Amino acid sequence: MFGFGKKKTKKPKQEFIEPEVAVITEENKDEVLRTISMREKELNQADREGKAKIYEDIGMTYLKIKEDDQAIDALEKSIQYKKTLGDGYKTLLRLYNKKRAEAAKMNDDKSLQIYMEKMDQMMQISKDVTRGVR
Amino acid sequence: MRVINFIIENILTQASVTIALIAMLGLILQKKSAGQVISGSLKTMLGFMVLVAGSSIIVGSLTYFGKIFAEGFHMQGIVPSIEAINGQAMNELGLGRDIALTFLAIFVFNIIIARFTKWKYIFLTGQAILWMATMTTVFGYFAGLRGITLILVGGFIGAVFAVAMPAIAQPFVRKITGSDDIALGHFCTVGYVFEAGVAKVFGEKGDKKKSVEDLKLPAQLEFLQDTYLSVMVIMVPLYIITAAFAGADFASTLSGDTHYLMFAFLQAIQFVVGVYVLLAGVRLLLGEIVPAFRGIAMRLVPNAKPALDCPVLFPFSPNAVIVGFITTTIGCVIAMFVLPVFGLAMILPGMLTAFFAGGTAGIFGNLVGGRRGAVIGGIAHGFFITLLPALLVTTFNSMGFVNTTATDVDTVTAALLYAWLIGPLLKAF
């Protein structure tokens, strides 16, 4: 009666699955690097906005071949040219957090502080862009 | 013995010294050089003194505003400002030392909870922790707690909020960001979940759910570009209109030789100056303490999820931020007129809270209930975040706070926990 005493079947808890980043194999890594160097050549003719876009693309491409440091470098340049809150911003924040977690595991306080500060700066950029500060 | 007594009675009782010592502890634990320890500690002390100066300016302006509002509208007009509450508690109420120690206790308990439970959240928004420490200390003190008990209870309750709020928000944050590695650390989460609940009931469902992100909205909110300008935009008309309602005869008694409307204008600017100075003090105060302790926290709980300030969500749903800001402002204005009908004080709308809390709440509303959810949920959110602080006004008045109430609703919830549960329990036993 009223279902008392019945054993409740517990729903299995759904684990959150991180979005997969498309993995590029060693064979076409060279091809990706060639694409990056071609994009880099376009930088000379591009205006600030164009440069921001190219660097964002380069950063996202480096991420595909798991070159996190190169990706961070390119995405930082992109934001220096133009503050935006697109995929580049989100990826950069995620990469900073990844680096922060690695530094915490290594007990490396210097790197930890650097990436925490960079994450603070990302919060400021988010505020600025949303409020229209250029 | 006389020297030790002198140190305890005359130096350690000073809030600025206590705060500087906390910063010193953090810097020493980080193995900084002697020069860095000294300069960091002195900067922290300076920050406290600047904060106190800012508070005095705000109190002066709010005292004037309280008088003209009472004369003009025959009721109490409350300016919601957690900064003003913090400043007055630190300075006028003399709770600076206890707030500083509670602030430290929240950090320590947060680390302990994250280290030994499955809730691995480390709350990184230093300013929000300071507001929480302020509210738990003030309301703990009012409930009758003193000394170490006041600090430990406040620290524990604050830390529970610092872990529970990101944990409650995380199912939403996961869906918003598509990732589980960053959490939301902003003490307005009760409001966000409230908006999500309203959006669930009244919002669009299933295939009919349309996101506000598909709409074309103005991309920028130019008038909010500067924090202080946006405060000024509200305060200047508010003071001038109130002075006009109070009338030349009454308002001139407060303005001396200056024209009463000009005086109201200058007092509004004084309020903004006070907020400017106080926040500059807060930045100096936290500039050394927060990096030191969050570094320690992250190393002690290496698998922790960092709970970041609300702008972390803005890039994922920019339109919802604008919708949330507008609808929350509408809800605040409705509540401003409705609450006095029920005998509560008139709470004037705060532009910054409407932007940051409203904008973030909009993201939650849109996620759960689409466009309709964001709009209805946003208005309800505005009403809700005005109602909760209104419930604290009587208590704040009785404590001696001048014409102000708190804003961030999680800190208000913690205060209500003291006022409605801990206080009565303490009195019963």
From TrEMBL, chain A:
<protein>
    <submittedName>
        <fullName>Uncharacterized protein</fullName>
    </submittedName>
</protein>
<dbReference type="InterPro" id="IPR019734">
    <property type="entry name" value="TPR_rpt"/>
</dbReference>
<keyword id="KW-0802">TPR repeat</keyword>
<dbReference type="InterPro" id="IPR011990">
    <property type="entry name" value="TPR-like_helical_dom_sf"/>
</dbReference>
<feature type="repeat" description="TPR">
    <location>
        <begin position="52"/>
        <end position="85"/>
    </location>
</feature>
UniProtKB/TrEMBL annotation, chain B:
<feature type="transmembrane region" description="Helical">
    <location>
        <begin position="375"/>
        <end position="397"/>
    </location>
</feature>
<comment type="function">
    <text>The phosphoenolpyruvate-dependent sugar phosphotransferase system (sugar PTS), a major carbohydrate active transport system, catalyzes the phosphorylation of incoming sugar substrates concomitantly with their translocation across the cell membrane. The enzyme II UlaABC PTS system is involved in ascorbate transport.</text>
</comment>
<dbReference type="GO" id="GO:0005886">
    <property type="term" value="C:plasma membrane"/>
</dbReference>
<dbReference type="Pfam" id="PF03611">
    <property type="entry name" value="EIIC-GAT"/>
</dbReference>
<comment type="subunit">
    <text>Homodimer.</text>
</comment>
<feature type="transmembrane region" description="Helical">
    <location>
        <begin position="320"/>
        <end position="339"/>
    </location>
</feature>
<keyword id="KW-1003">Cell membrane</keyword>
<dbReference type="GO" id="GO:0009401">
    <property type="term" value="P:phosphoenolpyruvate-dependent sugar phosphotransferase system"/>
</dbReference>
<feature type="transmembrane region" description="Helical">
    <location>
        <begin position="121"/>
        <end position="142"/>
    </location>
</feature>
<feature type="transmembrane region" description="Helical">
    <location>
        <begin position="409"/>
        <end position="426"/>
    </location>
</feature>
<comment type="similarity">
    <text>Belongs to the UlaA family.</text>
</comment>
<feature type="transmembrane region" description="Helical">
    <location>
        <begin position="260"/>
        <end position="286"/>
    </location>
</feature>
<keyword id="KW-0472">Membrane</keyword>
<keyword id="KW-0812">Transmembrane</keyword>
<feature type="transmembrane region" description="Helical">
    <location>
        <begin position="99"/>
        <end position="116"/>
    </location>
</feature>
<feature type="transmembrane region" description="Helical">
    <location>
        <begin position="6"/>
        <end position="29"/>
    </location>
</feature>
<feature type="transmembrane region" description="Helical">
    <location>
        <begin position="148"/>
        <end position="169"/>
    </location>
</feature>
<dbReference type="InterPro" id="IPR004703">
    <property type="entry name" value="PTS_sugar-sp_permease"/>
</dbReference>
<keyword id="KW-1133">Transmembrane helix</keyword>
<keyword id="KW-0813">Transport</keyword>
<protein>
    <recommendedName>
        <fullName>Ascorbate-specific PTS system EIIC component</fullName>
    </recommendedName>
</protein>
<feature type="transmembrane region" description="Helical">
    <location>
        <begin position="228"/>
        <end position="248"/>
    </location>
</feature>
